[in-house]
Write a structure and sequence with these properties.
The complex is a heterodimer of chains A (263) and B (460). By secondary structure, chain A is an alpha/beta fold. Chain A has 9 helices and 8 strands. Chain A is globular. The longest helix of chain B is centred in the last third of the chain and has 25 residues, at 401-425. Chain B is an alpha/beta fold and 460 residues long.
Chain lengths: 263, 460
């Protein structure tokens, strides 16, 4: 039996591709800026006890673009609407990079939609030290390679997105990059209002995870998130010798941390 | 036929190795700009344009790029305004303002109207989407590039032709009070011309708007293919397209002797020439391409393009062998990539660039010689493409002011009169003699033959 399925659901005024797999209480996963990376070992591990619900962001993969979504905050409003229609709240959420930024925006609009939140290396706040990488001014190869601290030590890196360089995958990357650029081109991958509104998040336990060597979103932003989330419980965990993808660079430790936090 | 003079007004003092090292002009640090050289060059270029008018050119053309020594005309309208005052009769052709990069296109409408008035109706505005690097430089969202282009275009035309004041509420631009005091001298508005580098979407858009399309030195057979698309679209729109709907820009450099022309003509390839304008990642930022263009690009992606995932050593080796010796552009690109990895020297990269010189001349991408030797080559281009506007693209590289002026003088004395005769002989009509779109198309009739590949076959 396949470990996961992908179905198109009409929700929040549009068709939305949703990837599902596993068993148990639902866990919402918001993927990163290049789209759903494929069913990786962290999905496999988490799916043993949770039903993973992974909506494919509008404009990427099989989800059609929603022209009316023009900012990341509006994308967050869209997902909150979808969660309401799917009767999925309050739900645990695990966000990766851009997906984690979306989750943070969602929390500012309705923190009660969630039970617990895990944010993995989100952009969204301008880091106090260093810049968010300008992923729009580099090739996809440079962008991908920058996400990993040590590719040799990360066997799963080669399995991301199926690991094949096909015309279809090239197109899928360009679609994803186009959609990310469309809503996050300016300011460069952050929302200057986000820190202010994060102060309004209450009663939502949040686990922030970062890699010390993150070359996409500098680790200094972890502390900025902690400070902004001043009125709710926040835990920050930083992995050493780790880049922007702790979920595959530190797979077992990452899964353990997430399972314990969500328990 | 309209004969037009064009230079990108390059900053010719930048060290070539900086361009090669940075894999393109866009990205060369501006510490190489020297104000004395810059000041001298701006004034020389204005003098050149006046001289070109005196030498017999019907039109002078400017363009606009940002953040690059390739083109000092970052604010082309400033130069155009000066030329409007210091030239007498030449059309001032702007190809073009990168509309999607402007946050306030109403100001462009105002600037162009001023230029048209100062020149007493000699302005030919043209608009472009801008290379991806213009979007990057101007922080304009590439994913909205085409939408912003089209809306800015509509807004400018409305500002020029609709009685104000009126409100404009679009998707990308909003104005509570559109009422430019100065509207263009030419009524209802100046004739518009659109340049391009082979995007079929742009060609179709031009045909629908009945705007002449000007190919910027694009490969002849590919250009011919697109002009047929234009012709078919025109027929669908109910009019017959002819030479008045087209223009072509061609690298031409002329000197007193063949030897000198050959030596100086190499400057067309300075730093890698047109192909080195910017790196691919700056040329095509995410969303700049249409979905269809992205699909085409995805299909033509080869293993030699740098790789995006899980690249094995076998794939890398295959990529290297993809740069076959016959494909000089690929060899030059590959050498530049090797340079970036520290596997090739600047000298090797430079040599790879100049190896393509003869081939570029054989393929008529660069025409250089004495008046006597360049005329038959220009004739061939006119026979193939029959452009109503023929633009001469002056050298980009380190050629002295004196040698540039000599080229203009020789063109004026010997080449332009001959080209005019060829144009007459071929029955080429320009967009000022016959309004593009003025001839109705009868459904079922054969449309005009726009191009002829015969002369190219004869050459092969």
């Amino acid at each position: 039996m396949a470990e996961w399925t992908e179905e198109i659901t009409h929700v929040a005024g549009t068709d939305l591709a949703i990837i599902k797999g596993g068993q148990g209480k639902p866990l919402l996963i918001l993927h990163e800026e290049l789209g759903h990376p494929g069913w990786m070992s962290y999905h496999q591990a988490l799916a043993k006890e949770r039903t993973l619900v992974i909506p494919v962001q509008p404009g990427m993969g099989k989800s059609p673009k929603v022209e009316q979504i023009r900012t990341v905050h509006e994308l967050g409003l869209f997902y909150l609407w979808a969660l309401r229609e799917l009767n999925l709240g309050p739900i645990d959420v695990l966000g990766f990079s851009f997906g984690a930024w979306i989750a943070a925006e969602m929390a500012t609009a309705d923190s009660k939609a969630f039970r617990k939140m895990v944010l993995t290396a989100p952009p969204g706040i301008k880091p106090p030290d260093g810049d968010i990488m300008d992923i729009f001014a580099v090739t996809i190869g440079v962008q991908l390679n920058a996400t990993i601290d040590d590719a040799e030590a990360t066997p799963e890196f080669r399995k991301l997105y199926g690991g094949e360089r096909t015309p279809e995958q090239f197109e899928a990357f360009e679609d994803a990059r186009t959609e990310t650029a469309r809503i996050a081109w300016d300011p460069i991958l952050h929302n200057p209002s986000l820190p202010y509104f994060l102060q309004g998040v209450r009663g939502l336990p949040i686990q922030i995870i970062w890699g010390r060597e993150d070359a996409v979103v500098p680790v200094s932003a972890a502390e900025a998130y902690r400070q902004a989330l001043a009125n709710t419980d926040v835990k920050v965990t930083i992995f050493e010798h780790c880049g922007h993808r702790p979920e595959i660079e530190k797979g077992p430790e990452f899964v353990k941390l997430v399972r314990e936090f969500l328990a | 036929m309209i004969l037009m003079y064009f230079t990108e007004r390059p900053y010719r003092e930048v060290p070539e190795e900086e361009v090669i090292k940075n894999r393109g002009f866009f990205g060369v640090p501006n510490r190489f700009f020297d104000r004395e050289a810059g000041s001298r060059l701006y004034n020389e270029y204005l003098d050149e344009m006046v001289y070109a008018e005196d030498a017999g050119f019907d039109a002078i053309m400017l363009n606009e790029h940002h953040g690059t020594p390739f083109c000092m005309g970052a604010v082309m309208n400033v130069e155009a305004a000066i030329l409007a005052r210091i030239t007498k009769k030449a059309k001032i052709v702007l190809l073009g303002n990168p509309l999607p990069t402007f946050k306030n296109p109403l100001r462009i409408a105002e600037e162009l109207a001023e230029i048209d008035c100062i020149s007493r109706g000699r302005l030919v505005p043209g608009w472009v989407r801008g290379a991806g690097s213009e979007s990057i430089f101007n922080q304009a969202n590439p994913a909205y590039n085409r939408e912003r282009f089209e809306e800015a275009h509509d807004l400018i035309l409305a500002a020029w032709t609709r009685p104000g004041p009126f409100r404009w509420e679009g998707k990308h631009f909003n104005y509570r009070f559109v009422n430019p005091w100065v509207t263009p001298y030419q009524k209802p508005h100046p004739p518009i011309m659109i340049p391009g580098v082979l995007s079929p979407e742009t060609v179709v858009w031009c045909a629908k708007h009945r705007y002449p399309y000007l190919g910027l030195g694009t490969a002849l057979s590919a250009t011919a293919e697109l002009w047929n698309i234009y012709g078919d679209t025109a027929a669908n729109e109910g009019y017959v397209a002819g030479s008045e709907n087209f223009g072509y820009l061609q690298h031409v450099f002329v000197a007193e002797t063949e030897e000198k022309a050959q030596e100086l003509g190499k400057a067309h390839l300075f730093g890698g020439g047109q192909g080195a304008f910017s790196r691919p990642e700056h040329t095509l930022p995410p969303g700049y391409n249409s979905k269809e263009a992205t699909r085409r690009l995805a299909r033509t992606m080869t293993a030699g393009s740098g790789g995006f995932l899980g690249v094995s050593s076998e794939q890398l080796n295959r990529a290297k062998s993809n740069a076959e010796p016959g494909n000089l552009q690929a060899v030059a690109d590959s050498t530049r990539r090797r340079l970036a990895r520290g596997e090739a020297s600047i000298e090797e990269a430079r040599a790879a660039i100049y190896r393509s010189y003869q081939k570029a001349q054989d393929g008529l991408q660069i025409i250089t010689g004495t008046p006597k030797t360049v005329i038959p080559k220009i004739r061939k281009i006119l026979e193939v493409l029959r452009p109503g506007v023929f633009g001469v693209f002056q050298s980009q590289g380190p050629v002295s002011f004196e040698d540039r002026m000599t080229s203009i003088r020789l063109l004026g004395q010997e080449v332009l009169p001959a080209v005019r005769e060829i144009g007459k002989e071929l029955g080429i009509v320009d967009s000022f003699e016959r309004k593009p779109g003025a001839r109705p198309y009868t459904p079922g009739a054969q449309r005009d033959q726009l191009v002829s590949l015969e002369p190219l076959r004869a050459q092969a």
